[in-house]
Amino acid sequence: LNVGVVVFPGSNCDHDAYHVVKHVCGQEARFVWHKDRDLSGLDAVVLPGGFSYGDYLRTGAIARFSPVMGAVGEFAAKGGAVLGICNGFQILQEAGLLPGAMLRNRGVKFLSQPVHVRVERGQTIATEGLRAGEVLTMPIAHGEGNFYAPEEELDRLERAGQVVFRYTTADGRLDDAANVNGSAHAIAGVCNEAGNVVGLMPHPERAAEPLLGSADGRRVFEALVRSLQSRAMPA
Amino acid sequence: VAAVRQGKFFEVDLEGVPADKARETAEEIARRVLSNPVIESFRVEVEP
């Protein structure tokens, strides 16, 4: 399988994502410069974390106009697997490929710490083969991760099963203190209606080897690989 | 103080554009780039 990792000016988790795909999961990986429009030959596209264009206006607000995003939109529309991590998630929201938007963290401060997230739904490109209810430990590192959507949109997301990850305690209980950034419905990750575009705020690529304190993130990338192996990809 | 919310203020200079066209342009910029409709609203004021 061949996974493209998009590089925006200000991406800083691109090499981590590339490393996990290539050296931990043993798949092919290549970087895709944000000015490229060619995603041919790719089975999946990862939008990595970082601070694209400095995030000065709003997180992801400028990156979504990068030339590559038109191609990412077409790739997603054809059913291609797109995984947005942290800033990549924010970019997908700005691009309208994922619902909601991020407000400043509830406590205003940038948060860099491990969190526990509960898998709410298997059978997405990031959770294929994982069971709903499983808890993964991965780090977050963001100032704007406070998921917001209007109440009726939240209801719609819940009914459609588009909530993929939720902040919980280590044993998978919802708890206000565990929802560190104050996200609506403790949402840490969502998918589009088809489940082929997933965004999450925690960093699986920073927790994919035991040496890094948790290898749970590897399971997200392995889920991506499994989902690609089990589905027909767009031509 | 019950709540505080901060926002952004942009001054955009347009040259040689009539006021109605300036408003239209500014509103398009605000809608497409400067604001995110999910979390923000905007108001445009045109000064000659």
Walk me through this protein's architecture.
The complex is a heterodimer of chains A (235) and B (48). Chain A is α/β, with parallel strands linked by helices. Chain A is built from five helices and eleven strands, in the order βαββαβαββββαβββα. A nine-stranded mixed sheet of chain A has the order 2-1-3-4-11-10-9-6-7, with helices on both faces. A two-stranded antiparallel sheet of chain A has the order 5-8. Chain A is globular. The two termini of chain A are 14 Å apart. The model of chain A has no long low-confidence stretch (mean pLDDT 96). Chain B is mainly alpha-helical. Helix content of chain B is 33%, strand content 0%. Chain B contains one helix and no strands. The interface between A and B is small, with 13 and 5 residues.
H/E order of the elements of chain B? Answer: H
Low-confidence stretches of chain B: none
Beta-strand portion of chain B reads under 5%
Q: Describe the largest sheet of chain B.
A: none
Q: Quote the distance from N terminus to C terminus of chain A.
A: 14 Å
Question: What count of helical segments of chain B does DSSP give?
Answer: 1
Low-confidence stretches of chain A: none
Most residues in contact, chain pair and counts: A-B, 13 and 5 residues
Estimate the strand proportion of chain A. 25-35%
* Structural class designation of chain B: mainly alpha
Secondary structure tally: strands of chain B: 0
Fraction in helix of chain B? 25-40%
How far apart lie the N and C ends of chain B?
Answer: 37 Å
| Mean model confidence by pLDDT of chain B | 94
| Quaternary organisation of the protein chains | heterodimer
Helix content of chain A: 10-25%
Radius of gyration of chain B: 13 Å
